[in-house]
Amino acid sequence: MAREFRGRIELDFRDSQADWDAFLPNRAPKGSPNVLVVLYDDTGMAAWSPYGGRIQMPTMERLAKNGLTYSQWHTTALCSPTRSTFLTGRNHHLNGFATISESSTGFPGYNSHIPPSNATMANVLRDAGWSTFWVGKNHNVPIDEWTAGASKKNWPLAQGYDRFYGFIGGETNNWYPSLAEDNRYIDQPYLPEDGYHLSKDLADQALKMIRDVKQTEPDKPWYLWFCPGANHAPHHAPEEYIAKYKGKFDDGYEAYREWVLPRMIERGILPEGTALTELNPMPDGTFSQTDEVRPWASLNDEEKAMFSRMAEVYAGFSEYTDAQVGRIIDYLEESGQLDNTIVIYCADNGASGEGSPNGSVNEGKIFGGYPDDEAENLRMVDKLGSPETYNHYPTGWAAAFSTPYKMFKRYTYQGGVADPLVISWPKGIAARGEVRHQYHHSTDIVPTILEACGVAFPDTYNGIEQTPLSGVSMVPSFDAAPDAPSNKQTQYYEMFGQRGIWHEGWKAVTVHGPVSGKGNFDDDVWELYHTEVDRSESNDLSAEHPEKLEELKALWLEEAKKNNVLPLNDLQIIGNPKDFETFVAMEFHQPAPPSGRFVYYPGTSEVPERSAANVHGGSYKIAAEIEFTPETEGVIFAHGSRFGGHALVVKDGQVHYVYNFLGIPPEDRVSAPVPTSGKHIIGVEFVKEGVGDYREPKGPVKLYIDEQQVGEKQIRTVLGHFSLCGEGLTIGRDSADPVSSLYGYGFDFTGGEISRVVFDIADDTYVDLEAHLAAAFARD
Description:
GO terms for molecular function: hydrolase activity; metal ion binding. It comes from Agromyces mediolanus (Corynebacterium mediolanum). This protein is 22% helix and 21% strand. It is built from 16 helices and 29 strands. Strands 1, 2, 3, 4, 5, 6, 7, 8, 9, 10 and 11 form an 11-stranded mixed sheet that branches. Strands 18, 19, 24, 25, 26, 27 and 29 form a 7-stranded antiparallel sheet that branches. It has a 5-stranded antiparallel sheet with strand order 23-22-21-20-28, with no helix packed on it. The longest helix is centred in the middle third of the chain and has 34 residues, at 301-334.
């Protein structure tokens, strides 16, 4: 019931009085605002045009001219953690999101399960009478709940959202995304050759959801969280948008930093005298070498052309997505809703340095624990941004787009945590086109929305006492003077072992890069900055104010204990095979049955990689029972994409086992003629006999038809993962982007029947598996 029943109940219906309102949901007060939150990924403050950058963002510019631009708004330095603060208004460790879902571990601050004591804002707004929608990236489903059979209590619908359409995990292919709708995985509605791009699809779905509400309940306000795949890798964009930036970045990233800083000062984003920090500001040995920046002058002409093209693709991706947001804004204006819609347009962390010093045409190599090949990258330069690449720019552009700050995403220096934010609400904010300098953080978004909507966060929710919100409302800044004091006092930071804390205009930060592998946290050197006058953290005052530094260090530890920050983890997962292997072992893995065997069936949902049989790092066996006919062809199973994976396929009268090692040509194939019509067991056995330079397993893979070996080849297999997320295991089809060049999109199994496919990661022999499988078939 929405409230207590106030009717009258007598013996006879005729003498009783109904009270419908007791059973109807609450209605938001008349005139309540809509809320549209647009949350980009991986974007430094110096990238976009409202902040002086070269990437044109007409929609964001339009909103900035009609609202406010914030110069000191901050995030956690990483996507899942920041997004968790948008969900609940609590600090990321309190939400269990010290890191991304995919790298969660079994500690209170690191497990990626938001506790019931941190109810979401969407639940509160929905109960208060708002429709609630989530479109796009969802990086806050715990890794153990990604499967079709898992609990959906941490999926959007159970988190307070009426509808969801998007993707689960950190990233997806923008041409061939791994999509989910509400509580189930779905296929993309059409293909790239028919004009598909994820950003366009997401805007289409968002518009449908808003229109659905307005045609049935026109007075009901709504809250939409719109999370495009941009600007996270892979950087994919239509060629016409990439072409807009041809030559725009040919001067290089160092020149860009020199060019953009004066423009940021001119626009009032930064104060006069703000210094430009060094391109490689951290001492050797204090950060991962994969985060270094190669000086532009040290590049040859081919490298400069490739690096420039990578920036062009990124820029085109960003502007194209802004145009899709523009379609939503246009509709709101045409329908008369824009005036009373709070639009919050921002990004979740600084520009990404995960492309390494040389950039990448296949960012998935990072998740496979394997280095990039610059020669291969150069061969693919003309394909960047297309379905043929999974590209990411080099660290130099991450530094440039995070000007004038030190470092970038993952770092608790300003380069990782200072982000763009524009807020527009014509009916509720009198100021137009002004800059606000109050210090704020992503934890402040929830209290801001709630106050603007006139909704209080409850002390208890569903009978559970609630943790107080970590943030403060930004509403006082709406009509304050640009330089009025902030109502925020303290904000701690921690990411992959690097620590920081801001308190009343001062900030302390450790010289200890994230994922650096240093350990020895007690020996960390701390720096001290007076950020009120030194926005770029260029003047270390630790020697001049040792007492202030000690005060902040003690305050950091106090905040860490309150927010479940410990233990600290800085394992060097990129560039250090041993640490990578250690970390992979700490991640969630689907527990194997005692037999070591996983059984999969056709006509079922995609199985996410982290929950599928783990074929990475060791030996494995696969057996499939197939009913063959003369017309049999198609995918028996597929796992991964053209950028890494493996598949068992029937094509052109042959059975092929294909292993695609991180998209590096050529594919490894073991093939044999299709067997005669009838029931047969097709088997694959890989035996790990050693490892390569990067601990990638090596050994023979054998193909069997029934008990007879029909092929063999030496291969190498992936140690880490085929992808960060998506591109899971499918039976009888390939989920999206094909694993092998042998076939195109889909290539569903036809002309026969797959009974089941068994993956075995135990230590027995193939013949044992075949015998067990035959016995299982006999029992069925």
